[in-house]
Amino acid sequence: xxxxxxxxxxxxxxxxxxxxxxxxxxxxxxxxxxxxxxxxxxxxxxxxxxxxxxxxxxxxxxxxxxxxxxxxxxxxxxxxxxxxxxxxxxxxxxxxxxxxxxxxxxxxxxxxxxxxxxxxxxxxxxxxxxxxxxxxxxxxxxxxxxxxxxxxxxxxxxxxxxxxxxxxxxxxxxxxxxxxxxxxxxxxxxxxxxxxxxxxxxxxxxxxxxxxxxxxx
Length: 217
What we know:
Elements: H1 6-10, H2 27-58, H3 71-84, H4 89-104, H5 111-129, H6 137-159, H7 166-197, H8 205-215
Helix pairs in contact: 2-3, 2-4, 3-4, 3-5, 3-6, 3-7, 4-5, 5-6, 6-7
């Protein structure tokens, strides 16, 4: 198993890989992905219910800027991929979170499952390009950004804002990409590192990286 310190992972060298075969999911992987997803599903519901209406009001003067909130819904995919580090981790985590959101109630209905799939695929593509060997912050940011592109270009442009002008659609896309990179990518990476520092991820590669970082101080 290859290992690397967090500082090296940050700059793009190989990160600690998941143990065993990449597709060899452990029970703890499945349980952790599910727990993370359920927590985010509840957060989604709270955000949908209490915060997103305020976002809509705040961006009423220029609606494309409302897409700056998109990254919130992409975070589970990034977090799942960074912790589990196996093919399908982003997709599983994001889809469970979306199902919980759907069960609790939201304004988009079953369409959230399509959104979850597109958002997760962005992260899966990025980590797959690097053969599940790199999980630094810039990989997380790229994953969040590509997720936003897929969600908007493949779905939201046509379902939510078909009447927008070309300029407004570009601003809408740019807002989503910025949000995906910063909120989901950088924010998801920071959350995973915080959990690792707290000792909550000892059974995962990021926990190994954290212990090595402490040992080298």
